Amino acid sequence: MTDEDTCAQIKSLMNLFAIALNFLHCDSTRVHGVLEDMRDHYGEILLRKLVTEMNGVLDVDNFVAITVADAAEQKRVLGDFPFTLDASAAGGEAESFPKHFPFSASVPKFYSLIQNYIATYVNFSRDLNLSQAEVDDKVRMSTNTVLSRNLRGCVCGKVEKGALTVDQLVQAYANCTYLEYSCQYLEEYIASLLKPRATGTLTTGSATTSTTSALTPRLESESLFKDIRSQIEQQVYTSLMNSIEEMVSRFDSAAAPESADKPSILSTRVVRYLEVVFASIRKMPYSVCQTAWMTACKHIANQLQETFIHKSPLITIEGVQQLKNDLTYYEAFLMKQKDNADPSTLLLAFSDLRQSTDLLLLWDWNTYFHEYGKKDAKYNRVQPQAALLILEKMKESDRKKSSVFQNLRKNERDKKKLLDTITTQLKDLIDDTASK
Predict the structure, then answer these.
(1) How many other CB atoms are there within 10 angstroms of residue 80's CB atom?
(2) Nearest 5°: phi and psi at 282?
(3) Cα separation of 267 and 353, whole Å?
(4) Are strands 207-211 and 200-204 parallel, antiparallel or unpaired?
(5) How far is residue 97 from each of residues 74, 87, 108, 145, 264, measured CA to CA in Å?
(6) Cα 211 to Cα 80, 187, 193, 263, 301, distances in angstroms
(7) pLDDT tens-digit profile of 6-46?
(8) What is the reported pLDDT for 257?
(9) Are 270 and 247 in contact (CB under 8 A)?
(10) Residue 402: pLDDT above 60?
(11) How far apart are CA 358 and CA 352, in angstroms?
C-alpha cells in the first residue's frame, strides 16, 4: 500500500473488525498488532510525501528575505508561522507596510508542512488501543524523524548541490535560526493535539515565546540545526574557494606590470569580490566570518603560489614585480578588516609569497644561503625546491628574452652570470637536506 487514503480506509475496517471480535468475546490482540504495523507503514508513506513537498519548496525558494506589501500578503505568505516583528528591530514600524522578515519563503512553508504531517499522523494514531504515553512517544519520535531525516536531508541536499550563491547560503543559515525557534511551537502544537491544555505567551525581544507544561513532548532540534549550520558553513568556504580559484588562476607570472607599483586588474577584481561577498558573510557568527576570511586568504595565496611556481611555463622579473604589487594591494586591503578578523593572522597566509618575491627582487641569495635552516632566518618560508623551480623557469625565460634581467636594480650583468651558480648551490642544498 502506497496510498494514505487506502491505509486510512483499511484502518477503519480493521477497527470495526476488532470491535466485532471484542463484542463476540474473541481475542483481538493480533488485529491491534496489525494496526500498529499499519500505523508505522502509514508514517513512512507520509514521510516520503513530505520529502517531495519539502524539495518542491526549496526548488522555488530564492533564498531572499521575505518582504510583504500588505496584511493579505502577510497572511498568505506567513500563514500560521509564529513570528512577530519587534518594533525596535523594525525601526519602530512593526505594524506598517511593507514589512521585511529575516527569513525566506521556505521557513513558514516548512512549518506548515510539518504541522500538517503531525496532525495527519496523530489522527491516524487514534483508536489503535494505545495508551496516552505510547501515543505521545510515537508522535514525538515520528516528528523527530521528520526533522532529523527529512528536513536535514532536504536542506543539506540543496546546499550540497553547490548551486546557491554565498548570499543565498547566508540566508539559508539565517533560516535555520527561525526554523529552530519554531520547534518550541511545534512542541506546543503536538501537546494541543494529544492532550489540550492551557498555555500562556510572553513577548521577549523580537519574538513571542510560548510556555507549556512540563509534559509537552520535546523535540531534538539543537543538534539537528547545528549539523545543518555546519554543512552550510562548509559550503560557504567551498564557494569562496571555487570563485577565488577561478579568478586567481589567470595570473600571468611572465607579464610585465600593468602599471608601476599598481595592482593588476585581476587583483582588484578579487578584492571587489571579497568586499561584496563578505558584506553578506558578516551577518554570520564572528567565528564563521573569521574562518571564511582565513579560508579566502589561504586560498588566494595557495592559488597564486601554485600558478606562480608550478603552472606558469615562464617567470620573469617583471612578473615577480607584478606579483609583489598585488601582494601589497591584498595586504593593504586586509589591514582594513579589523572589525571582522585579525589582520595580522590573515597576513600570515601571504608570508611564503612575500618572502619569495623579496628574495627574487632584492636578489638576496647570500642572506638566503647564510641563514638557511635557522629558525629566525629572513627567508625561512622559502623552500629550496620552490626557489630552484622558479630559477629554472627564469632561465628558460632568459633564453627566450635575453634582456630579462635588464630591470634589476644593480649589478645586472653580474647577477645573470651568477644564475647558474645559484642554481647549483640550490641543488646541493636540496641534496644535503635529503641526506640528513
Answers:
(1) 11
(2) -60, -15
(3) 15
(4) antiparallel
(5) 10, 13, 19, 38, 46
(6) 18, 10, 16, 59, 52
(7) 666 666 666 666 667 667 767 767 766 666 766 777 778 88
(8) 59
(9) yes
(10) no
(11) 10
Maximum CA extent, the chain? 113
* Helix boundaries (H) for 250-363: 265-281, 286-305, 317-334, 343-347, 351-362
Task: Give the Cβ contact number of residue 320 at 10 Å.
Answer: 22
Whether residue 220 is predicted with pLDDT greater than 60 in this model: the reply is: yes
Place of cell 508561522: 81
Q: Which three cell numbers mark 314?
A: 615562464
Please report where in the chains the cell 521577549 appears, as a residue: 204
Residue 207 has pLDDT above 60, yes or no: no
Let me know how long the chain is. Answer: 436
- Which tens digit of pLDDT belongs to each residue from 288-306? 999 999 999 999 999 999 8
Q: How many Cα atoms sit within 13 Å of 39 on the Cβ side?
A: 23
* Nearest CA among 182, 181, 199, 202 for reference residue 191: 199
Long-range Cβ contacts of 233-236 (<8 Å, 24+ apart):
233/173, 233/284, 233/288, 233/291, 235/159, 235/160, 235/162, 235/164, 235/169, 236/166, 236/169, 236/170, 236/173, 236/281, 236/284, 236/288, 236/292
**Which stretches of 95-155 are assigned E, i.e. beta strand?**
99-100
